Amino acid sequence: MVCSWRKALLVACVLSAVIFAGAVAAGAQAPRIAFIPKNLGNPFFDAVYAGIQEAARELGYETVSIGPPAADPASQIPFIQQQSAQQVAAIIISANDANTVAPALRAAMQRGIAVVAVDADAAVDARHAYIQPVDFDTVGLEQVKLLAELIDYQGEFAILSATTTAPNQNAWIAGMQVELEKPEYANMRLVRIAYGDDEPQKSYRETEGLLAAFPNLRGIISPTTVGLAAAAQALETNNAADRVALTGLGLPNQMRSYVKNGTVTAFQLWDPSEMGYAAVYLVDAIRGGFRPEPGASYQAGKLGERTLGENNVVIAGSLTTFTAANIDDYDF
Amino acid sequence: MSSRVRQWTRDNATELLLFVLWLGSLALGAVISPYFLSVQNLFDMTSQFMELGLMALAMTLVIILGQIDLSVASILALTGVVFGLLQEGGMHAGAAMLLALGLSAALGLFNGWLAVAFRLPALVVTLGTMALYRGAGQILLGDRSTYGFPLWFISVDFRYIPGTPVPYPLVIFCLFALVFFLLLHRTTFGRLVYAIGANQRACRFSGIHVDRIQVAVFTLSGLMAGAAGLMMSSRFASARWDMASGYELDVITTVVLGGTSIFGGRGTIAGTVLALFVIGTLRYAMGLANVLPQNQGVVIGLLLVMAVLLPELWARWRAHSFARAAEGGGLARVKVRERSL
């Protein structure tokens, strides 16, 4: 145990050197906007961030995207606090849990940081506004319109949904049924609503069941990404794509091969980048003195004027229809 | 240098090393982020790892005892969930806090009792209760968060001693650290914990109530996890069954980096506290520089491996060079150096 203090010093020096080796000097010039997604490595949020970057370039902001590896509610809090300490101009967040992140977001707002939630909302008093991807009331209507065009407004069709209790899907299906009352759909008949529980296997089997039960089936709407991909696979394996038109809500990356080989002609989803884009313009407006409150509106660049609704909810855009012509422009 | 000072540095080599490392972490923080080095920021930073600290204090005793408690993070979560449900059900939050703390102590007691009564290794027992306690939280609350706590309870990390930048979680931690310091280093109980960790059989034969002390230490561990659970529920203004998942490993890392021997019998509260600040400061500094947590793990892991490995390598190298010197060659020089020390 001779000269253990020297040992201590030596070890300390070596370790400090190791730590310093990883050090990078950081400097900030332009005001910075931090995007905190639910989790990193998720193509959906990469697309949101692409929209943020596009608007930030137009308005002269720096951006950073940082978040937890997994969508764990509490894990977003340190990121919120770190970004606050770095005095960012704004935090754009997709909250894993509306209430868990609320105290940290409120503290950020008290420091004068603009806080905007996108895709998944935070507690109402813990953000200035929430950007919702589309007006959910119009999803059912748009889906029926799209299918009607694909099958020339006539024939039997079915719906392949998620679970019987999925709130979004049920709201959209109700919207579809309202739209179907209109006279132009008189020759279209909804024969069954099947539930695939958002499980690929079950959705696949349910689709095969529909094909067997209804030989005159002309179309299927699947307003869930899991269901749409499974149904496309079922149509492909059963060589039924020629007689049954399939559409719904899907992710371009999941559906690309089916669109390219003709199994699916067209499907829809919101473009996540529009949420990011609208959020940055709102941040810029707030920093310019805009007071976010229901009824107020601001200019969102290429998206035009956007109006804040109840609880400061902003609708980013409308559904985008993906076809063979445009699907390669999207990567999420 | 007087021999007293030399003796002191020799006895506290680990703590000194950690202190230097902490200064290094602070320097690193100042270098990699322009926002790091402000008084307010340095104090605010501590709130992020005080729960870890509360659990690490008790874990130090557990590990000195030659045991391990893998269930602490699960107790933290279950305590938060039960507190949330009690006050959701209309109970006064103060009463709910006491009940939740009582529950956490009971959960720790259960760990200790299982290990002692059935002569099971604590590793196996707490591996089981780790899953059991967290699962119970999930069943009780489901996959949602409980919130709506009274204003006086929430956001403890944004409350400061009036007129100072000192946040309350730091104050609470310091009080507990003092209590644990006195308990481990100034009481018979503390001496017995060391003795049992060093040689459990000898202690049993000496008539020491080994089992009783082991159960007491596990109960303490549960209680501290419960206190951490309340602190975290306050910070997040909500509680969920899956909060602090994976924290048990961070707690153990902190204690081991603090110089506590995983084989038992050695370790200090000061070492644990310093290690907590080293890890906490490093993580916060890297976070400010936007280094991702999974990449921060590389630095923390490297630090731990080297802190364990380097003294070992150094001792071997010295032994080797002494042996070589004894064979001849540098014998005279070594003698001179030894005398000068």
Could you say which structural class the secondary elements and strand pairing of chain B correspond to?
mainly alpha
**Sheet with most strands of chain B:** 2 strands, antiparallel
- CATH fold-level topology of chain B: ABC transporter involved in vitamin B12 uptake, BtuC
What is the mean pLDDT of chain A? 88
Domain tally of chain A: 2
Low-confidence stretches of chain A: 22-28
From the spread of the alpha carbons, the general shape of chain B counts as: globular
What is the CATH architecture term of chain B? Orthogonal Bundle
Share of helical residues of chain A: 25-40%
Uncertain residue ranges of chain B: none
Overall structural class of chain A, as computed from helix and strand content, comes to alpha/beta
Give the strand order, joined by hyphens, for the main sheet of chain B.
Answer: 1-2
How far is it from the N-terminal to the C-terminal residue of chain A, by CA? 61 Å
Quaternary structure type: heterodimer
Biggest interface, which chains?
A: A-B, 47 and 56 residues
The level-1 CATH class of the largest domain in chain A: Alpha Beta
Mean pLDDT of chain B: 90
Helix content range of the residues of chain B, please? over 70%
User: Order of SSEs of chain A, N→C?
Assistant: HEHEHEHEEHEHEHEHEHEHEEEE
What do these coordinates show?
The complex is a heterodimer of chains A (332) and B (341). With 332 residues, chain A is α/β, with parallel strands linked by helices. Chain A folds into two domains: 32-127 and 272-317, Rossmann fold (3-Layer(aba) Sandwich), CATH 3.40.50; 137-269, 3-Layer(aba) Sandwich (Rossmann fold), CATH 3.40.50. Chain A is built from ten helices and 14 strands. Chain A has helices at residues 4-21, 43-59, 77-85, 102-110, 139-150, 167-180, 200-213, 225-237, 252-260, 272-287; strands at 32-36, 62-65, 90-93, 114-118, 129-134, 155-161, 188-195, 217-222, 245-248, 266-269, 297-299, 305-307, 313-317, 320-323. Chain A has a six-stranded parallel sheet, sandwiched between helices. Chain A has a four-stranded parallel sheet with strand order 7-6-8-9, sandwiched between helices. In chain A, α8 (225-237) links the parallel β8 (217-222) and β9. Chain A starts with a helix and ends in a 9-residue tail after the last strand. The relative contact order of chain A is 0.13. The model of chain A is unreliable at 22-28 (pLDDT under 50). Chain B is an all-alpha fold and 341 residues long. Chain B has one domain (22-291): ABC transporter involved in vitamin B12 uptake, BtuC (Orthogonal Bundle). Chain B contains 15 helices and two strands. In chain B, strands 1-2 form a two-stranded antiparallel sheet. The model of chain B has no long low-confidence stretch (mean pLDDT 90). The interface between A and B is large, with 47 and 56 residues.
